[in-house]
Amino acid sequence: MNGRTRRRGAALDDAILEAAAAELEERGWAGFGIDGVSRRCGTAKAVVYRRWANRVELAQAVLARMTAESHVENEPSGDLRTDLVAFLEGTAHFLGGPFGEAVRGTLYEASPAHRASMLGDRVIVSDVARIIDDAVARGELEHPPSPAAMNLGHAVAMSEFLHTGLPPIGTAIAVLVDELWVPALTRTGPRMVDPIGGDRTVSAE
Question: Going from the N-terminus, what domains does the chain have, and what CATH number goes with each?
Answer without folding.
Answer: 9-65 (1.10.10.60), 73-203 (1.10.357)
